[in-house]
Amino acid sequence: MKKFYQQIICAIILGAICSGCAWFLPPGEAPEGKITDNSQDKNLSSEELMHHAATSLCGFLLTTPEITSINCADMISERVLREASSVTGTVLNRASRYTLSCRNDGKKVYFTITCSGKTLWSYPE
Question: What is the pLDDT of residue 23?
Answer without folding.
Answer: 66
